[in-house]
Structures are given as structure tokens and as C-alpha cells.
Design a protein that fits this description.
This protein is an alpha+beta fold and 159 residues long. The protein is built from six helices and five strands.
């Protein structure tokens, strides 16, 4: 191989080592809406669009007779959050249940900085979905659902 070609190859190889990660630079912190979360990282919007909730579970969620609030504590940097928060968004969208609402709270990656974002809640892992009925916690989905987001909600709510 001629010297100029070796130099070009070396430049190309070394330059590829410095390609920045394709991850949004800033964390989402504190209260944040669904649209801002999905706009922050396009892969989350793609995950929400691709998720296919169980129709039977959606039917049960549509039958809610009491208000249910889900507090979602997530990390915009967290792979488990990237998998399960978009799934929750799709469940909420497809269930179209006015009594089923979610409030999302972004949490920093640095563990020592997280406590103020937990609003006095005991949160150990992310994401954590706190399920509240009449203001009382009735259950949680922590890090990864046991079965699926929608199936776990149905179980927690006794539907």
C-alpha cells in the first residue's frame, strides 16, 4: 500500500474513534411532559410507535371507574426507561381512559443528585412507576415489568 493511502486509512480509522455517542447531551430533569420526552430522543418516539399493547389489558384499563395517577420516575439516559416509558405512553394512548393519567419526572444519572427529584418517595431503581388510587400508592412497576406494562397495571389495579 502506498504511503498516501496508508495515511488516509490511518486518518479515517483514528477519526472514527472520536465519534461522539448518539445520545442527547442534556438530561431531562424534574416534571416533564410526554411530548418533551419523546422529542428529546427520537428513539423513544420510535419505541412508543412500535409497541403493541395487549388488547385485553387495554379493554380492562378502559373500564376504570376510579381515578388512577401514575407517577413515572425515569432517567432520559437509562436503557430500562427507554424501553418501558415509551411502552407506558403507548398504553395510555391506546387505552384512551380519561381516569388513567401519568405525571413524569426526570431524574439525573448521578445517584447523589437524585433525592430532590423523588419528592420524598422511596425510589431505588429507574424507571419506577408509582400507581396511585385516590392519592394512595397501590403498587409499583420497578425497572422492568413482571409481564408487560399494561398487564402489570391491570394486576396492580385488580381489574
Amino acid at each position: 500500500m502506498s504511503r498516501p493511502i496508508r495515511v488516509i486509512v490511518l486518518i479515517l480509522i483514528s477519526g472514527s474513534l472520536f465519534v461522539p455517542a448518539l445520545r442527547p447531551a442534556e438530561e431531562l430533569l424534574g416534571p416533564v411532559g410526554r411530548e418533551a420526552i419523546l422529542a428529546h430522543d427520537p428513539s423513544w418516539a420510535g419505541a412508543a410507535a412500535a409497541y403493541q399493547p395487549d388488547p385485553a389489558a387495554l379493554d380492562k384499563l378502559r373500564g376504570l371507574t376510579r381515578e388512577v395517577r401514575i407517577e413515572v420516575y425515569f432517567g432520559s439516559w437509562c436503557s430500562d426507561s427507554a424501553a418501558h416509558v415509551p411502552a407506558l405512553f403507548k398504553v395510555l394512548e391506546m387505552a384512551d381512559a380519561p381516569l388513567l393519567q401519568a405525571a413524569c419526572f426526570g431524574v439525573p444519572e448521578v445517584k447523589e443528585k437524585r433525592a430532590p427529584y423523588f419528592q420524598g418517595r422511596e425510589i431505588a431503581r429507574l424507571p419506577t412507576f408509582l400507581v396511585l388510587v385516590d392519592g394512595r400508592e397501590v403498587g409499583r412497576i420497578v425497572e422492568t415489568p413482571e409481564k408487560s406494562v399494561e398487564a402489570d397495571l391491570v394486576r396492580i389495579l385488580g381489574l
